[in-house]
Task: structure prediction
Amino acid sequence: MRFSVSLPYPGARAGTDIASQARYAAFVEECGFHAISATDHPFPVVGGGSVSHHAYDPFTLLAYLAARTERIRLHFSLLVAGYRNPYLAAHMLATLDEISAGRVIIAVGVGYNRAEFEALGARFGGRGRHSDDVIAAMRSAWSGEPVHADHQDWRAEGNTMFPAFAGRSQPLMWRGGNSTGARATAARSFDGWAPLEVADKWADKAGTTGLTMSTLQEAIASYHEEWRKARRSGTPDVCLVRGRTDWLRDPGRLVAETEQLEKMGVTWVEITPYGDTPEVVETSLRDAARWLGEADLLGPI
Result:
């Protein structure tokens, strides 16, 4: 199993400034985890019942952390496809991937916060189909070949991108989202699927469909079936985004649930460590890494 560790939200607790984020990333790498993840909220509405939160710009933050680390992957979780022009996003991602020597993972989502879309001048209605158009445009630019496109939101007349991915692999791209549509899209045209574990009672606020340990196995089985129907080869990634922290406090439960997830077909878990201070957070991560390593459940970085 591989693990991505969420970077702390600014202001969520002590020690969330940029310097602390760099120390945190280096510590996560030292523990033997596989990725650090950053979220995408440029201009959210926070409070008043919203589940949004503030975040540092993920492109800038992960570029800085790429220079402060050596092996750990740089994970966008999630990058909201509709917030930016696709060619601008593709350029920033290709540059970051070159800076980091190919360490970028991009989990893409359609987003849920209408107020943030409207503040950014982005389209909220029809954002699922629009996200598919964005990804297709990004991939066309990454080829390094001249791009010709006539979309209602952008136009290309032989434009080319540098850096590009001619002759080298594009970054891993996972499709976030719990809906059947997101799962089907992940199976057809992404390297993996990144669902969010969320109880039904919180799903509406998070703009998604409920998904729990009791329903995950069926959902993964359906995803694998969609993958085969699309005539895809190999085994796709499934990265479960798990915001709960209770399972990390108990070594027996951590090992048992990791083994259970692995049997279901989960290949990555995005975890949020517990703790209100940097010292407690580091202790929780160090303990989790030790318990997982002793159970031979912490894959190579």
User: Anything to note?
Assistant: The radius of gyration is 19 Å.
